[in-house]
Write a structure and sequence with these properties.
Layout (H helix, E strand, L loop, with lengths): L6 E4 L13 E8 L5 H17 L6 E7 L2 E8 L2 E4 L3 E2 L4 H13 L11 E2 L22 E4 L2 E11 L9 E7 L2 E11 L6 H7 L8 E7 L1 E2 L2 E2 L19 E9 L3 E2 L6 H20 L3 E2 L8 E4 L10 H13 L3 E4 L6 E2 L21 H7 L10 H18 E3 L2 E2 L11 H5 L3 H17 L14 H17 L7 H14 L7 H13 L8 E2 L7 E2 L2
Parallel strand pairs: 2-3
Antiparallel strand pairs: 1-2, 3-4, 4-5, 4-6, 7-8, 8-9, 9-10, 10-11, 11-15, 12-15, 13-14, 16-18, 17-20, 18-19, 21-22, 23-24
């Protein structure tokens, strides 16, 4: 990252790369000005750099020295703690003890995770339960007393405060798994582990292999461990519990689809899985986003209730399409009576993909608001729109514009309450104008008719107040039509544009190979 520390405490530096946030143990911020909000922001940015470079880091300790007054700053998944100021001269002994601790303290006291072995970090830590065999010095992560070799890092949350989720691809023997490490809200009524146990065996969702609450000195590790007694229970600092899940199967990011038809098929899978969760298991996901939808190789043929579904299964088997995988059930909850939704009082979801109703309620939540399955389906539609605008081909970000130059700018950058209100206004306007369609990259032009129909469902649902209009059957019908008729376009922005222009100029042949719905919606059946 571009931010630079004033004074840094780090381990041995790489002789080729030199300084990197990956090596930072702690840092000191110096200024000749008095302590200010700007100073805290600078320290927070540098703490963020540490967390992003060290995904296994539990917390970060920093110092600041302003006009001969020093303060201690601690950042963890419940937020930040800033100490009172102390004179460098009158409290020289205290300052010396702090420096001594940062220099010679044990790694776990400095924020490193003793259950994660990483020789590339400084200092490196080797955690080994008595019953576990010695490890070679390679990256490894523990789930209870079993060590799993880390193959690569998959995902890290881009926030300091919150769940702080990190995911790792690991293996034990010849089997591959995903380890999800996160800090969940301690007061959550239904834990992710409980949800995953309930839906165990359902195709298209994460399967729980093992769950573990990390232990510190024989007790569950929480963010309260760092807080003075008078701050424990303070409403500003929610208590977060350090959890680790071992999951299968291993999935690929959604944007790595191979064709438009495979992409549409994956969305159909997710709608079907979501329907089963609601109808059979009484579970609502509540956080549909692009990071929570993956693809995986599945040799098992899924159940088909209709002829169209049977035909799709045949296409999937013939073309070896991957299947949709819905993950991250930390915000999932049990439906209320009548399976109408979840009335929990909290607003959940990932902001860019939040339903319009959820954005409206975000700043001033009403107690009687209900998060329904239609809100999840609306989020799923926004995921599809996100891909169609930001990508120019499978796994290829568009090169002609940045996200700030698209209509998704406010989707991606919304943070404050004012931003959320603007995003709500924008999404409401986009329902009627369909302005998102004009920003689809050429590769995704064939999906415009489907997205138009999906937006009509959202609009009808919002205008009438009848959330049942946006239902699983209606969304599946639109996606099945797209699956059966979508035009495959050559990958790459230039090839996609040329192919689409050629298709528009070609005379429409008679026969069943084409389906027409307006001059800009002709799609070839594969």
């Amino acid at each position: 990252m571009s931010v630079k520390p004033d004074i840094v405490l780090c381990g041995q530096l790489d002789q080729h790369t030199g300084f990197a946030w990956h090596n930072v143990i702690s840092f000191l911020e110096l200024t000749s000005s008095a302590h200010s909000a700007q100073l805290r922001r600078n320290i927070t940015r540098k703490a963020y750099a540490v967390f992003m470079s060290q995904p296994s880091r539990r917390f970060v300790v920093a110092l600041s020295l302003a006009r001969q007054e020093f303060r201690l700053h601690i950042f963890d998944r419940s937020g930040a703690i800033h100490s009172l100021g102390h004179s460098l001269h009158r409290a020289a002994d205290l300052f010396t003890r702090v420096i001594y601790t940062l220099t010679f303290g044990s790694p776990d006291v400095l924020g490193f995770d003793p259950t994660f072995v990483d020789p590339t970090l400084s200092p490196s830590i080797l955690y080994r339960p008595r019953s576990a065999p010695a490890l070679q010095m390679s990256r490894a992560i523990y789930v209870r007393e079993t060590a799993y070799t880390v193959l690569r890092h998959i995902y890290v949350s881009h926030l300091i405060r919150g769940r702080g989720t990190s995911s790792w691809l690991v293996k034990k023997g010849k089997k591959h798994y995903v380890v999800k490490d996160y800090w969940t809200h301690k007061g959550r009524k239904h834990t992710e582990e409980q949800i995953l146990v309930k839906i165990k065996g359902l195709l298209g969702v994460s399967q729980l292999v093992e769950a573990w609450t990390i232990q510190t000195e024989g007790a569950d590790e929480t963010t309260d461990w760092l807080r003075p007694a008078f701050l424990v229970g303070n409403t500003e600092f929610e208590t977060r519990l350090h959890r680790r899940l071992l999951l299968s199967p291993v999935g690929d990011p959604l944007v790595q689809f191979h064709s438009l038809q495979e992409l549409v098929s994956i969305f159909i899978d997710i709608v079907q899985v979501h329907f089963v969760l609601v109808d059979v298991y009484n579970i609502l996901h509540r956080d549909i986003s692009i990071n929570n939808i993956l693809m995986f190789i599945c040799a098992t043929r899924w159940a088909a209730a209709t002829h169209d579904q049977e035909e799709r299964e045949n296409v999937i088997a013939e073309k070896k399409f991957r299947r949709g995988l819905l993950i991250d059930f930390d915000y999932a909850d049990v439906l209320n009576a009548g399976k109408q939704g979840v009335s929990s009082g909290d607003r959940t979801g990932t902001i860019p993909f939040m339903a319009i109703d959820l954005l409206r309620e975000y700043n001033s939540p009403s107690k009687d608001f209900t998060h329904t399955f239609s809100h999840d389906l609306e989020s799923l539609i926004y995921v599809l729109v996100w891909i169609c605008i930001l990508y120019q081909a499978p796994n290829e970000i568009r090169s002609d514009r940045t996200i700030e130059q698209t209509c998704l700018k406010h989707w991606a950058l919304a943070k404050t309450s004012t931003d959320i209100r603007h995003l709500w206004d924008q999404k409401v306007g986009q329902l009627s104008t369909r302005s998102v369609l004009s920003e689809f990259t050429p590769y995704f032009e064939p999906l415009k008719p489907a997205v138009t129909r999906l937006y009509k469902l959202i609009q009808s649902s919002c205008d009438s107040g009848d959330k049942s209009i946006l239902n699983h059957a209606a969304v599946t019908e639109v996606l099945m039509d797209a699956f059966n008729t979508v035009t495959e376009v050559s990958c790459g922005a230039k090839n996609a544009k040329r192919t689409w222009q050629r298709l528009q100029k070609e005379p429409a042949p008679t026969g069943s190979r084409y389906y027409s719905e307006g001059p800009n919606a002709r799609r070839r059946v594969m």
